[in-house]
Amino acid sequence: MIQNPLPSLPEVAHLASAVVAEMGKVIEGKPEQLRIAVTVLLAEGHLLIEDVPGVGKTQLAKALARSIAGDVTRIQFTPDLLPSDVTGVSVFNQSTREFEFKKGGIFANIVVGDEINRASPKTQSALLEAMAEGQVSADGQTYRLASPFMVIATQNPIEMEGTYPLPEAQRDRFMARVTMGYPARQSEVAMLESHGGGDQLATVRPVTDVATVAAAVRAIRAVYVAPVINDYIVSIVDATRHHPELRLGASPRASLHLMRASRAAAALAGRDYVIPEDVSALAGIVLAHRILPTVEAQVARRDPASIIASALGAIPIPERR
Hints:
This protein has 321 residues and is α/β, with parallel strands linked by helices. The chain folds into 2 domains: 9-216, P-loop containing nucleotide triphosphate hydrolases (Rossmann fold, 3-Layer(aba) Sandwich); 223-313, Magnesium chelatase subunit I, C-Terminal domain (Helicase, Ruva Protein, domain 3, Orthogonal Bundle). It has 14 helices and 13 strands. The protein has helices at residues 9-23, 31-42, 57-67, 83-87, 121-124, 128-133, 168-173, 185-195, 210-220, 227-241, 252-268, 276-287, 295-299, 304-313, and strands spanning 47-50, 68-69, 72-76, 88-93, 98-103, 110-114, 135-138, 141-144, 150-155, 176-178, 208-209, 246-248, 292-293. Strands 3-6-9-1-10 form a 5-stranded parallel sheet. A two-stranded parallel sheet has the order 2-11. Strands 4-5 form a two-stranded antiparallel sheet. Strand 4 (88-93) and strand 5 form a beta hairpin. The protein is globular and about 65 Å long.
């Protein structure tokens, strides 16, 4: 297959800005969340969007999917959803007298997993291989997934009725987690004016295609990460494993995800090298959903983000050279 030539990093930054602007047609007043979503896409990661119902989680996922001209599927996670509905199933063909594999919803460039924590943990776990390795194994066969491939999952807080907590292994597959939050008053007024006339998602148009996105991903892999930056990343992740307020720290996969996200952030800023500020700005977003506070920390109402911030403050920032 012929690959698109690699774009320059300024071209990658322009592409990202165009996608963010297109998504902004339907997501009012949330530029940071939109930028993180595009960063995760270009960093070859998956995004978890968590918040209460009705704040635009699914809209953000759909807007990103529509802004790139690729295959998009939506999986509505419900208590009766089966793992085979996600990955696919072998069906016996009467005419050929052979089993044929019918692909599930995971076979697309952008997979929108709506309310992922309303399905059982068994069904949630059907995503593990796909998200980690970009493939699905069934009946002794391995099927490669599309490239680029990204899962954008939305979930409601655990306290909401009818939800199941995501297993630790599942959370660890997501590169980043963002929360939408309620919109500012002015943004909510603007939303009423713009969305009152119909479905605003119909106004979102593709500003790029999957081949260009794949080329941008390859270009970002060349962004330079100095040894001292890698050491800084490992120090941050290691600090979560020894923090007195945490009973589960971040995994080595978290280190890799933080490095990849930092490279994408540097590229979006027009740089071909990562600086410590890229890492520190993303540390909470990449790590907070992977860690588990102790009972004492929960009683003291210490949330994971604040614990990450305190751990980050105790680590010396590398000097630029």
